Amino acid sequence: MADRDPWQDARDRMVDTQIASRGVTDIRVLAAMRKVPRHLFIPGPARESAYSDYPLPIGHGQTISQPYIVGVMTALLALREQDRVLEIGAGSGYQAAILGTIAREVVSIERIPAVAELARENLARAGMRNVRVIVGDGTNGYADGAPYDAIIVTAATPAVPAPLVTQLAEGGRLVAPVGSRDLQELVRLTKRGGQVTRETFGGVVFVPLIGEHGWEA
User: Fold this and answer.
1) What is d(CA 150, CA 82) in angstroms, rounded to the nearest whole number?
2) Which one of 45, 142, 165, 167 is separated from 198 by 20 to 30 angstroms, measured CA to CA?
3) Average pLDDT value for the chain
């Protein structure tokens, strides 16, 4: 019998006290967050705080999001096993790993090559084989793989980039933090019959989304 993961108790506490207790009820999301080894996606001394209730630095001015926010955004996507997902902003790869544990395929776009390579290494270490990390301007999406059943933007954007809405499949869901550089509102767009509906889910704070349809560097 394989040895028990020594981090499993910390993951279970994270899910129970930070996520499930605060209203995230999607059993697929909770199961994925119990399974994915978050500590593998955090470099250096910050790894000791991997299962704490706050964002952590991953280098290059980027962060890994607070676990609760990862849970909320993933739940808002309402993922199904057959879904294809586009992620904008790979970061260290943790959010992509959660997505890939639930959905069939994930494409993640990262503008910083060194961060993209970090994500690839972390995802490989975690055994994720259905996630592809591509270097590019995430505000333009990835048309070669479109349409997507779900799109998640993991950085703050002044408005939802138009190319992402175009690449969203019929019935698709897009979740993004939209607002100023300092404060955003979590937004979900749903495409039905060629029309897009918009819902909001409270305030959040993310690093800025840099690119043609985002913020200037």
Assistant:
1) 11
2) 142
3) 96
Alpha helices in 134-175 (DSSP H): 162-166
pLDDT (average), residues 20-35: 98
CA angle 50, 201, 174 (to 5 degrees): 85
**Which pLDDT tens digit goes with each residue over 175-215?**
999 999 999 999 999 999 989 999 999 999 999 999 999 99
pTM score of the predicted model: 0.95
Calculate the alpha carbon distances from 93 to 65, 119, 160, 167, 172 in Å: 11, 4, 22, 22, 22
Domain covering 8-204 assigned CATH 1.10.40.30 in the classification: no
Any idea which residue has 């994720």 for tokens?
128
Q: Which two tokens stand for residue 75?
A: 């739940």
Res 34: pLDDT: 98
Residue found under tokens 């270097």: 135
- Express each pLDDT in 169-184 by its tens digit: 999 999 999 999 999 9
The residue from 21, 52, 65, 92 that is catalytic is 65
Domain extents in the chain: 8-204
Indicate if 108 belongs to the active site: no
Contacts for 166-174 with beta carbons within 8 Å, 24 or more apart?
Answer: 166/141, 167/86, 167/141, 167/142, 167/143, 168/196, 170/194, 172/147, 172/148, 173/76, 173/77, 173/78, 173/149, 174/150
**Residue type for 65, please?**
S
